[in-house]
Amino acid sequence: MNPLKILDISLLGPLQIVLDGEVIPLSGRRQAEVLARLAVSVGQVVAADRLLADVWTDGTTTTAGKQLHIVISKLRQTLGDLIVTQPPGWRRPGPSPWRSTPTT
Predict the structure, then answer these.
(1) Is-contact 20 82, C-beta < 8 A?
(2) pLDDT tens-digit profile of 29-74?
(3) Closest CA to 45 of 97, 7, 92
C-alpha cells in the first residue's frame, strides 16, 4: 500500500503544485491545464473528449489524442497514482479539494 500523499493545487493566481510539501514544477502549459481540469473535478472521471475540448482550445489537431496521452503519462510520472485511468478518461482521486488557505 502506498503511503498517504498530500497534493495541494493552487488554481488562483499562478498555478502551483505542492506534493508532500515539495513544490512540483510542470513542463508545459498543457500539463498545467490538464491537471487543473482534473483538479476541479476531483473524484470524478473526466473523459478524454472533455479534456481535449477544454485544453486543446486552439483547435483539435489529428495528433491531439496522442498529445493528451503523453501529457497524462508525464503527469503520472510526476504524481504517481494521484491520476487514475478510468474509462472513458482519467480522474484525480480524493475528497473535495475546496478549502480556504490564507495567502500572504
Answers:
(1) no
(2) 999 999 999 999 989 999 999 999 999 987 667 899 999 999 999 9
(3) 92
